[in-house]
## 1
Amino acid sequence: MRIDIVTIFPEYLAPLDVSLIGKAAAAGILDIRVHELRTWTHDRHNTVDDSPCGGGPGMVMKPEPWWEALTGLVPPGTEAGTRLIVPTPSGRPFTQRVAEDLATASHLVFAPARYEGIDRRFVEAAAERMPVEELSIGDYVLAGGEVAVLVMVEAVGRLLPGVLGNAESAKDDSFGHASEGGMAGLLEGPVYTKPATWDGREVPPVLLSGNHAVIARWRRDEALRRTAAMRPDLIEGLDPDALDKKDRAR
Ligand SMILES: O=C(OCc1ccccc1)c1cn[nH]c1
C-alpha cells in the first residue's frame, strides 16, 4: 500500500519511521511518503491559509495548494484504487470497521488540516475525482489532523498482511469483526501472564486449566461483562446472531 501524507508539519509524522509501521515500510509492505504542503505554494511567504469568508475566528486553509498537491501526487487518470482521507472533528467516526475497509485500498492520501480546516471547495473538487472520506478519531478538537493521521495509519497498517508478526495477531482485536472466535464487536476482557501469583493476586485458575473450550467461554463472558460495563452502546449494536445461545441465556 502506498500512503501519501501532505502536511505543513512533516516532522509530526516522524513516529511513522519507528516500530511496527517503520518495519513495514522498511519491508516494502507500506510505501509512506510525507510531503510539505508549502511545496505547492508559489508566493514569497508560501501562504497556505487566509481569513474565513463571512468572518469568524481563526484561519482557513486555502484550496489551491491542496489541489495542486493532490493533482501532483495523483495525476488525472491515475485515481483508480486511491482514496483521499481528511481527518476532521466533523467527520464520520473512524472505527475498526472503517480501518478494515481502508486496508483494502492500494493508495491512501491523507490531508491533515490545521487552523479551522480546509476550504470546502477542495473536498468538493476532490470528490469528483476519487472517493473522499472525512473521518473523526474522536469528539474533541486538535490543533491539526497530523495526530489523527498517525492513529489511522497505525490502525490500518497493522491489518495489512505481514505487518504483525503472528505473535501479535489482529484477528482477535477488540471491536474485531473476525468470524469464529473473534470478539465480534465486543471489548476485550482482562489479560494475564506469568507469574501465576503476583502481589498476592492470582491469575484466574480457568486460564491455567488447559481446557480451551472453557477458557474460550470464560473469555467471552469477560468480554461481554466488560462491554456491558464500559460500552453499553456496543451491546445495543451487537448482531444477535453473533451471540450464541449460551450468551443469550445471560
Ligand atoms: O481535530 C481534528 O482534526 C484536525 C482538524 C481538522 C479540521 C478542523 C479542525 C481540526 C480531529 C478530531 N477528531 N478527529 C480529527
Note: Residues 177-181 have pLDDT under 50 and may be disordered.
## 2
Amino acid sequence: MPSRISHSFRPHHSQKHFDLNSIKELPESHAWTSSNDHYTQENSCNFESIPVIDLDNNNNNNNNILDHIGHACKKWGAFQIINHSISERLLQDIDVAGKTLFSLPMQQKLKAARSPDGVTGYGVARISSFFSKLMWSEGFTIVGSPIEHARQLWPKDYKKFCEVIEEYEKEMEKLAGRLMWLILGSLGITKDDVKWAVGPKGETKEGCAALQLNSYPACPDPGRAMGLAAHTDSTILTILHQNNTSGLQVYQEVNGWVTVPPIPGALVVNVGDLLHILSNGSYPSVLHRAVVNRTQHRLSVAYLYGPPTGVRVSPLSKLLDHRHPPLYRAVTWSEYLGTKAKYFDKALSSVRLCVPLSGFADAKDHNGVQVG
Ligand SMILES: C=C1C[C@]23C[C@@]1(O)CC[C@H]2[C@@]12CCC[C@@](C)(C(=O)O1)[C@H]2[C@@H]3C(=O)O
Ligand SMILES: O=C(O)CCC(=O)C(=O)O
Ligand SMILES: [Fe+2]
C-alpha cells in the first residue's frame, strides 16, 4: 500500500499522557464546558438518523443503491452499510487487536508514540492542538505495514496484530474502492470520467489510506468531557467500525447533533473533504464527533481513504458548466493534509476558488457551530 501520507498537526501545548482508565474524577484539563448537549437526540423518542443501505445486489438493485447513496450523501454526508462483505470474524479480530493494544500499560504504549513530526503511532487526537481542553480518548494511527510499531509494543509477539491489521487494510481497500464508484455513480460519474482512479486494465488504482484506532475509556463525567471534537475527515471517504457502543454523532443543519446508533455488523461511511471537492460541493463532508459515556469503554476503527499519492483532486469536469463553475482548486491529498494541519476547520474554505452563483455557504464553515 502506498504510504506517502505526511504532514502532522504540531502540538502547541505540552502533551502529558494521561492514563484515562485510572482517573476517577474529570480533571480540569479535560472539562469541556459547552458539551452538555450530547444526549439531546437520544432523549427525544422519534429521532431520525443516517440511512442504512443494504449493499447486497440480491436485496437491492443497483439503481436503488445509487439512489439511496446519493440521497444519503446530500442530506447527511454519512450512511451505514450492511451486507458489505467484511466478515464478522474480521470485525471481531480488529476489536480484539485494538483492545489488546490500548490495554497495554502506558509506558509500553509510549514506546510506539507518534513523533512530533510523524503520522503513525500512539498518541492523543491529532487535532488536540486546536483546542485548549484535552479529549477523553487515545489513538493509534497506522499507514501501510504496522510491523515497526508492533515490534516496539510486543517485541516477541507482534505477528498476530500485524496479520489482523494487514487483512483489515486489504479488505477495506476493496470496499472503499467499491464505495467510491457507487458514490460517484450516484452523481452520474463513470470510470471514464476519473482517469486517475483507473489502471491500465480498467482496475481501480490503489488509493492511499490510514487506519485510525480510537479508544474512549468509560468517563466519570461524560456530560462535560469530549471523546473526539467535531471535525470533518480530509478523505474521499472514511469507513468507520464502532464496537456496539454509541458515541458517534453527526451534525445536521436541521436536527443538530444526531447520534449514529451502532448496528451489529454495520459500518458507517462518512463523506470527506476530498469528495466534497470532487463533487464540487454537491456532497458536503460531514461534521462529526465522538462523545463518551460513564460505564462502557468504546473502541472505533476508522479507515481513512484518499486518492493515490501525487494525484491532484479537483471538481470533476462532468459536473461543471457555465452555471456551475469549479468551487475548489486542485489539491493532492498530502497538500490538503498540510492545509488541514494548519487551518483545521477552515481548510476547505482555504482551497475555495469563488462564491457559487446559487450563494450557498460553504458547508465547512458550519456557520455558528462550535467545533468544540
Ligand atoms: C490520513 C490522515 C487523516 C487524519 C490525519 C491522518 O494523517 C491520519 C489520522 C487522521 C485523523 C483521524 C482522526 C480525525 C482526524 C481529523 C485527525 O486528527 O487524525 C483525521 C485526519 C484527517 O482526516 O484530517
Ligand atoms: O470514534 C468515532 O466514532 C469517530 C472517529 C473519527 O471520527 C475518526 O477517527 O476520524
Ligand atoms: Fe473522523
Note: Residues 159-185 form the longest helix (27 residues).
